[in-house]
Give the backbone structure.
Amino acid sequence: MTALADRLYAWRDRVAGSPRFQRFAARFPLTRPVATRQASAVFDLCAGFVYAQVLRAAVDLNLLERLREKPYTPADLAPELALTEAATTRLLKATTSLGLTASRAGGRYGLGMKGAALLGNPGALRMIEHHHLLYADLADPVRLLRGEAGRTALQDYWGYAVGERPESNLRVEEYSRLMAASLSLVVEDVLAAYPFASHRMMLDIGGGTGGFIRAVADAVPQLAFQLFDLPPVCALAGPRFAEAGIASRVTCIPGNARRGPMPGGADLATLIRVLHDHDDADAQAILAGAFAALPPGGTLLIAEPMSGQKGAEAMADAYFGFYLLAMGSGRTRTPDEIRAMLATAGFVAIRPLPMPRPLLASGMVARRPA
């Protein structure tokens, strides 16, 4: 059966790759719509970097925020962007073709649907501002795949991901702001998916400066918290808890999740976008540490991008696949892979946690045996 399927796929690929068939498909009325969509999709793959740079220009110039209030003509907008009218027109035509902006009456341009959606996702905006590091690392993707690129910009940025003493080279303030901004929509989805009120204390492992804890604390006033992260990160988190008025409910414990031990006392441990940053051995060590920290019957909750999730394939396997390669650590895993790692650590009752937007994160829950 497999051999037959392989022959059928090979025949299909030969036909689809034939210039003669492509010309026929583009002209024949029944196949023309499909051929047009495929040609457009192939062109988008070729032009993706240019599209991303158009997006970056729009973000760097604060174009979308300006158009949120009212539409502009290129002549009126050019002085605000410090561009010529011709350059402003070029930018607006490009962003309109991508759906970020939209043409209005009188030669004006306003915000497009994609632009409005982007403004509602501050984390995505921060990632776009940060992408110059990723693009520099991807300038020669083959060297990166072969491990010949040397130390990358993302390895320097995410200093905790590599090295024997990652605590010593953190750009803590900068990366903590990015992590906090990019977490907001994931936090909303996790809060909607899991009943935190059924627990008395939550241990957030690798929780950064406490953005997730602050959100859960607002939603579940009776819950106490522990934050476990690298010492410089914990030092930043304390003042933020004080500002939020929850310092009495949170204990910050400095440490390294890859080396342990983790603090005990919580009946719920959370790993929010943590495992995928780590290679398999380190990820397995983190799960073992979480298992040891939990009491019998305690629960572990994982939320992060996962491979093989319908509608999120490109995000998990293309974007995060190469982002983590440039970062020098980690990979996205399928739910089955994570399930196997949880079982190896000793967890039972492992189940998926349905999340409304798998493009942002998928969830999984497991329990330490009672």
About this structure: The CA atoms of residues 7 and 239 lie 63 Å apart. Confidence is low (pLDDT under 50) at residues 163-169. The beta strands are 101-104, 108-111, 201-205, 224-229, 250-254, 268-272, 299-304, 348-353, 362-367. DSSP finds 16 helices and nine strands in the chain.
